[in-house]
Design a protein that fits this description.
Strand order of the largest sheet: 2-1-17-16-14-3-12-13-15
Number of domains: 2
Largest sheet: 9 strands, mixed
Order of helices and strands: EEHEEEEHEEEEHHEHEEHEHHEEHHE
Helix content: 10-25%
Structural class: alpha/beta
CATH class of the largest domain: Alpha Beta
Radius of gyration: 21 Å
Number of strands: 17
CATH architecture of the largest domain: 3-Layer(aba) Sandwich
Shape: globular
Length: about 400
């Protein structure tokens, strides 16, 4: 197996705590926008994005919606147990899990787990004026998580309704504060639609309805895909080399028509956020697997892109995927990806990237390093020297490759 030799110490930087944006700006599109193009760096404000984009661009958005994934239960002893829902296990499909009024099982992180023995936990919540008792029961312990079964005592109440009324928005741990009312609105993109993420696709937080209208008026095309962002996006690389890091898996859904449009605009794709990048690049490698006669039921594994043939064109690979969907009468393609994008990776679909500024020692920073090469240091130094705000609620950048 070919695994890139990447030392994490070569791809990090010093990020002072006071440069981490703890709260969003009052206006989404008032953030700074760093522009990296033809190796030149400048900046403007995000509201001018339409003026920066080439007119033939196709912007790809991740329309996943952040769920209120943190649930707090209080034992009779007074001990507080926090359950952080990561992903559904039974049913496995995200949409089915939210629509189900039957008991559902989720993979969860449990805070204060030592205080929770074997007895179920109960939480009283109000839904549409009715009192519902939510029950949480441990099913299985895993190495770094628990399988928890949730059930309500009222029929016809979906898990989506339960979690919406019982949970809180899981803002990033590096904000070092509790969720507040402002996060309910601002830690969602204005175009979020499909529930399933436990972290926001933060590059999209800068977009407003006004900017989306300006894009449409200027003839810049857009399309939506859905990748449900997992908590693993915050997991730092703790190994000395990237070979020892286990990449998290995320689920995505793409419409057949979206793949056809990607084929038509293959040379002009702008990804809004790293989650869109991960999805778009994974689509290429799924197409390669089909062309090579390989099974695609496992989706894209961490090191697949470094071991599969890379000589197929973007259109060839995406066309293979489109034909597969047509042959199987699929209007939507559901899959999963653990793709890891590190320096040395050759991008197949994405030509331009809109993204925030990422944590040191993170796979997201490695993705940026792969996209613009050694100039990532110039970009981050420029941002630090010009008072850019960093991470989820911070400022933005648009990076042009090549």
């Amino acid at each position: 197996m070919n695994i890139p030799e990447i030392k994490i110490s070569d791809y990090t930087y010093e990020l002072p705590d006071d440069r981490i944006a703890k709260y969003p700006l009052s206006e989404r599109d008032a953030s700074k926008l760093l522009i990296y193009k033809n190796k030149n760096i400048s900046h403007t404000v995000f509201s001018n994005l339409t003026d920066v984009l080439p007119k033939n661009s196709l912007l790809v958005f991740n329309n996943s919606k952040v769920i209120r994934a943190r649930l707090k239960f209080r034992k009779e002893t007074g001990a507080v147990i926090e359950i952080f829902c990561l992903e559904p296990v039974k049913p496995f499909d995200v949409q089915q899990a939210f629509e189900s009024a039957k008991p559902t099982q989720w993979r969860c992180i449990v805070g204060n787990a030592k205080k929770w023995k074997d007895a179920p936990l109960f939480k009283e919540i109000s839904i549409n004026g009715k009192t519902v008792i939510l029950k949480a029961e441990k099913i299985k312990r895993e190495e770094q998580a628990f399988i928890i079964e949730f059930s309500g005592d009222t029929p016809n109440i979906s898990f989506a309704e339960i979690i919406e009324n019982a949970g809180t928005i899981p803002i990033p741990p590096y904000l070092n504060r509790k969720p507040e009312q402002i996060d309910d609105e601002r830690y969602q993109t204005v175009y979020s639609e499909h529930k399933g993420s436990v972290a926001a696709p933060t590059a999209g937080l800068h977009f407003t309805k006004s900017i989306l209208n300006k894009l449409q008026d200027s003839g810049i095309e857009t399309l939506n895909i859905t990748l449900h962002v997992g908590a693993g996006t915050f997991k730092p690389v703790q190994t000395k080399t990237i070979a020892g890091h286990e990449m998290h898996t995320e689920h995505f859904v793409v419409e057949a028509n979206a793949i056809k449009r990607l084929i038509e605009k293959a040379d002009h794709v702008t990804a809004v956020g790293t989650t869109s990048v991960r999805t778009l690049e994974s689509l290429y490698w799924l197409g390669v697997k089909l062309l090579e006669g390989n099974d695609i039921t496992e989706g894209i594994l961490q090191w697949d892109p470094y071991n599969l043939p890379s000589n197929y064109s973007t259109k060839e690979a995406l066309t293979a995927l489109a034909e597969y969907m047509e042959q199987n009468n699929l209007q939507f393609f559901n899959s999963k990806t653990a793709i890891i994008i590190v320096p040395g990776y050759k991008f197949k679909v994405v030509k331009t990237l809109i993204t925030n500024f990422h944590q040191p020692h993170s796979t997201l920073l490695l993705l940026i390093c792969a996209f613009i090469g050694d100039d990532w240091r110039r970009v981050y130094d420029y941002a630090l020297e010009n008072d850019f705000r960093f991470l989820s609620y911070g400022d933005s950048s648009i990076l042009f490759s090549g």
